[in-house]
């Protein structure tokens, strides 16, 4: 059991949560049994402590929970939910209120091969000082495969983030589809060859 109070950083996944908060977090993990790994947290997503009493900033309340279960030695699944609620608009900034539900997994079918998948669904209301309230109900997913066996390392990844997907506490660019690949070959101690490919597009709904 681990408790943390004050500056707290928990990374659930790329879409769900990878931001710091001022608050509290609880983490449970016991590697000696098959019990799930559990993380709970809550607080304010301020970047500075003086935002509480001096420097003006949007007050973003953030609450999150994640549960991760090892199904086998080579496969785990996880689910998380993150809730955000903004107060106190400053400098015309938009306010956000809603939640993000995310599922992710990792599978290692062969030595040196890792497959990772993540899918996320967001339900966010955006309160803009100019255009009023806009609802964003979107989804995002990505799939990655990594082959790492000396002297080569290959990474393949595909990602699609819908136009209406917002990840307030995570990191994702809405309205983006991309595929990328990279290959690293270590020919000798002094020579390593790196190649990479990236393709992407936006305007997924054709508007």
Main attributes of the structure:
globular; mainly beta; 207 residues; 11-stranded antiparallel beta sheet
Strand order of the largest sheet: 1-2-3-4-5-6-7-8-9-10-11
Residue runs with pLDDT of under 50 for 5 or more positions: none
Number of strands: 11
What is the H/E string? EEEEEEEEEEE
* Structural class label: mainly beta
Average pLDDT, rounded to a whole number, is 89
> What's the shape?
globular
Main beta sheet, described? 11 strands, antiparallel
Question: How many angstroms separate the termini?
Answer: 50 Å
C-alpha Rg, in Å? Answer: 20 Å
How would you describe this structure to a colleague?
It is globular and about 55 Å long. The protein is built from no helices and 11 strands. It is mainly β. The chain has an 11-stranded antiparallel sheet with strand order 1-2-3-4-5-6-7-8-9-10-11, with no helix packed on it.
Short description, anyone?
The protein contains no helices and eleven strands.
């Amino acid at each position: 059991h681990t408790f943390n109070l004050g500056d707290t950083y928990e990374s659930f996944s790329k879409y769900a949560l990878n931001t710091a908060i001022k608050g509290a977090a609880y983490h449970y993990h016991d590697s000696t049994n098959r019990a799930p790994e559990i993380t709970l947290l809550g607080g304010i997503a301020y970047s500075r402590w003086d935002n509480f009493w001096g420097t003006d900033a949007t007050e973003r309340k953030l609450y999150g929970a994640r549960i991760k279960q090892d199904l086998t030695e080579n496969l785990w699944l996880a689910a998380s939910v993150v809730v955000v609620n903004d107060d106190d608009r400053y400098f015309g900034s938009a306010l956000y209120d809603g939640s993000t539900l995310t599922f992710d997994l990792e599978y290692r079918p062969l030595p040196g091969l890792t497959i990772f998948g993540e899918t996320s669904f967001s339900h966010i209301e955006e309160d803009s000082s100019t255009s009023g309230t806009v609802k964003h109900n979107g989804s995002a997913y990505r799939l990655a495969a990594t082959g790492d066996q000396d002297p080569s390392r290959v990474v393949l990844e595909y990602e699609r983030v819908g136009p209406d997907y917002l990840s307030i506490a995570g990191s994702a660019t809405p309205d983006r589809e991309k595929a990328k690949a990279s290959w690293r070959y270590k020919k000798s101690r002094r020579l390593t060859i790196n190649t990479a490919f990236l393709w992407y597009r936006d305007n997924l709904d054709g508007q």
